[in-house]
Amino acid sequence: MPSTTCPECEERIFVDANSEQGRIITCEDCDSNLELVGLDPVELDVVSQSEPGEYSDGFNIREHDEI
Ligand SMILES: [Zn+2]
Q1: Which of 14, 22, 34, 48 is deepest in the core (most CB within 10 A)?
Q2: 37 CA to middle of ligand 1, Å?
Q3: How far, in Å, from the CA of 31 to the mean position of ligand 1?
Q4: What global pTM score does this model have?
């Protein structure tokens, strides 16, 4: 099983060889959410803690709403 280290705490993280790129993995040591950005070699990127609705709010621009 391929492995890499957590970018946050350096803990060794094992990644399932069948994982798809973009999969979110949680570090068991520091609870960071890590996105699998590369498979060969395995590379993880820290995902900022996202809150529900992050992508649904903030796009309420109504340029064509004037009558
Ligand atoms: Zn970690």
Answers
A1: 34
A2: 16
A3: 6
A4: 0.68
